[in-house]
Structures are given as structure tokens and as C-alpha cells.
Amino acid sequence: MAGRKLPTVNRKESLRRMTELKLMVTGKLYFCPDTLASLLQHCPELTSLDMPMYYDDRETYGSFLDNVVQSCPKLKHLGRNDPAPDHGCMMFNFLDFMKENTLESFYFLEYTEGPESVCWTFDRHKESVKSIILDECNTIGINFLMALIGFPALEVFSISLNPWTASQFQELKLPLTLDKAQEALGKDNIDFSGPIPYWMTKLEKFYRQNGALSNLRILELRVTVEMNVRDSNRRRIIYSDKTLVGMLTLEDRVTGRPGWSLLLQGLRNLEELHGSFNLDAMAPGFEFGQGEADWIVEHWHKLKFVELYTQLEEAPVIFPPPVQSMVQRLPGLWVVGKYKNPHWD
């Protein structure tokens, strides 16, 4: 009933079929320990946990982690898929609370080696751990690598370095390809209450990485097109049919429209934006509007050049009001609406 507060019902039965738990943290970027502990006490069969950030006094780690071990005695797969400022402190501490030689796999996104390496926490599980994956590391020390020598059960050990840690980049030019799901963006609204599709997480990570390059002056991102590829109507697909998905779109959760412009506000020194930003090729509902124009004016003060169309040189260009407002408010801004490279057609 509208306006009526419903009573809270505490669950008594265990979630006996739940073996895997991943929690997407938004807002304050951390979980209240009491909330998380009350959830996990109903998951005795849990074997895989994506460990969220627990942002609290580290002296309280012990009691909380002990509760997790008691509630979920079958845990053997740990992961961290959300980069967070705690550098995974709780996750590494949890290895000490688990029963010896029970960990089998470990995944960590954007690991950063601190002054005191945490690599030795794996030693308690050297007889059981089979897979350690450190994805997009910012830094990693030799001690971490040496600590894993002599792990008899280890089958997979993978380290990938974050190419974007070179924060002094001033110019970046990349050719890009879009998968079918990314190119179909806009045909269906996104249900933000459900699981985030994998193709969206890939785009978000890519835009977030670009937005971290605070010294970038020139950015060029072009969607590549294979020669002689045709659509369902047998029409040849050309460069002007493509636009980079969601980069110049503000998210609107009310209408179910994703967008990632906010992730790029760190590009405060951006002077030139080149590439596949064809406003005419954007899907319905994803048009470049006044809100997007206002956002660019507010965050990219130094912008002098932007490529917003991919029309043939002889085609007439009529700038819509949002683009005109950008030109009026950013002195010296040159908006390019035509191209003439024959390879792109």
C-alpha cells in the first residue's frame, strides 16, 4: 500500500543451493560489516565469494572475517572484481582466517603492491591453491613472484599489467572493434536492477581507463570496419555507419539508457577528440543532446577540436543546437563534420 512501511521479515532458512555470491557495490563503495555478515550466515554451502571492500577500522577485521569463516566453511574460491582504495586488505587478511590449505583459486583486479607485500599470505594455502590470477596490475614486486615458488598444486599463475598506469600519456590513438552486443546498444532498454551484461562492463572499464589519463591532450578512437562486410539488406557497411558506443552519452537510469561520459571527466587537459563520434549514427534514445553539450563545456575547458560527424566532404553539415551552444561557449572550438579519407568511404 502506498505510503505504508512494510515490516521487515528476518530469514530463518539457509540458502542451501547458493554456492556463488558476487556483490556489486555502489554509492559509498563499501559494505557495512554487520549487513554482509547477516547475509553470509545464511549461505553455508557457499564455495565462491567475490569479496567486497570492507571500509572500517582494521582492528575489526578479525571478528568479521572469523564470522565469515564460521558461516561459510566451504569457501575455496575468492575474487575481487571491483577496484577499490583498500587495495584488497580485507581479502588478503581473509586468507589467514581460512582453514589451512583450503583456498583453490584467487582472482584480483588491479592489484597494487604496497610497502609491505601481502604475498606471504598465500603460503598457508600452498598445498591447495591451483589458480592465482592478478589482472591489470598497477605494480607488483619481485617478492610476490618469488613467494609462489614451490607451490606444488599451482596450475595457473597469470599476471597482466595495466597499460594505463602510464598516466603521463599526452596522445593516444587506437583502432577499435565493437562486438555485436555493443553495436546493438539502444535496441532494448537496460534493466539496471538485474545483472550488468559483460559487454557493458568491458565498455565501462575501457572508458574508465581513458578517463584516468589526466594529462591526455589528444585522443583518437576509431571504430574499424572490415572491407566488403554487408548488413542484412546486403548493403555494404562503411565507416560512416559506426559510432563509438555510449562515450558521449550521459546515463539515464529512469529510461534505461546507459552512458559513460561521467567516467571521462578526468580528461581535464583534453584539447582534441578525433574518431568515430558520428552523431547521425547514434541509436534512437542515445542522441547527443543539450545535457551532453553542457557536460563537455563544464569538464573539457581546453577542447579546441572535436570530430562529431563522419560525412563525406561534399555532404552539407547542419549543426544541431547543442553543438552550436558548445561552439559559442568554448572559444576557438573547431567542430569537424566531414572526412575525406577514401578508405573510410
The helix fraction, in percent, is: 10-25%
Distance linking N and C termini = 59 Å
Largest sheet: 6 strands, parallel
Strand content: 15-25%
Note down, in words, how this protein is organized.
The structure is a single chain. The protein is an alpha/beta fold. The chain has 2 domains: 20-164, Leucine-rich repeat, LRR (right-handed beta-alpha superhelix); 166-339, no CATH class. The chain is built from 8 helices and 11 strands. It has helices at 33-40, 61-71, 89-97, 142-147, 180-183, 198-211, 290-299, 321-329, and strands at residues 20-22, 48-50, 77-80, 105-109, 131-137, 156-161, 171-176, 218-223, 272-275, 305-312, 334-339. Strand 5, helix 4 and strand 6 (156-161) form a beta-alpha-beta unit. Helix 1 packs parallel to helix 2, helix 2 packs across helix 3 and helix 7 packs parallel to helix 8 (321-329). InterPro entries: LRR_dom_sf (IPR032675).
Task: Please name the defining characteristics of this protein.
Leucine-rich repeat, LRR (right-handed beta-alpha superhelix), 2 domains, six-stranded parallel β-sheet, 345 residues, 8 helices, five-stranded parallel β-sheet, alpha/beta, 11 strands
